[in-house]
Write a structure and sequence with these properties.
Structural class: alpha/beta
Oligomer: single chain
CATH topology: Rossmann fold
Strand content: 25-35%
Number of domains: 1
CATH architecture: 3-Layer(aba) Sandwich
CATH class: Alpha Beta
Helix content: 10-25%
């Protein structure tokens, strides 16, 4: 019988050796969930071989018509499984917030222990804090109306994390 924690982990996170393996993994994830094979991405991912994997990916801030957004993250917090995203010209916050599906690429070297270490890293590397810092711990959910949980009310329905081991 599979370990339930391990199978849940696989549903939301995969790891790859190098970023160049990302397009094939993203294509399998999208196809497996019946999602469109197109996405908006942060500019840093534009050079990957998306078309070879059968995905149409454009580097731009997500628009209302983009159902998938591919981003990196400033760092990830191991303690809570949270992504820390810092906005900037090449890292528009909207790409993680507007699409129904958010796919985040996380280099293993950017995983820190917890919140304190994340803020220490931000202060040491960024100097000045960005206009927005977003913490993503999973799909958007709310229970505001009649105490009924609703997914995707204030952000994506799905969050998928790809951990890159050799970066």
């Amino acid at each position: 019988m599979p370990d339930p924690d391990k199978s849940r982990w696989r549903a939301i996170c995969r790891s790859i050796r190098e970023a160049r393996g990302g397009p094939r993994l993203v294509a399998r994830y999208l196809a497996g969930h019946g999602l469109p094979l197109s996405a908006a991405c942060w500019p840093q991912f534009a050079g990957l071989a998306w078309s070879d994997a059968g995905i149409e990916v454009e580097a731009h801030a997500a628009l209302g018509s983009d159902l998938v957004g591919i981003t990196g993250c400033f760092c990830a917090l191991a303690e809570t499984g949270t992504l820390m995203l810092c906005s900037g010209p090449g890292t528009p916050a909207v790409t993680s917030l507007l699409p129904e599906t958010h796919i985040a690429v996380v280099p293993v070297g950017r995983i820190v222990a917890g919140m304190e270490e994340a803020w220490d890293l931000a202060r040491s590397e960024l100097g000045e804090l960005p206009r927005a810092v977003n913490f993503v711990s999973g799909p958007s959910r709310t229970g505001d109306i009649e105490q009924t949980i609703v997914l995707g009310a204030h952000g994506p329905y799905r969050v998928h994390v790809i951990v890159v081991r050799d970066q």
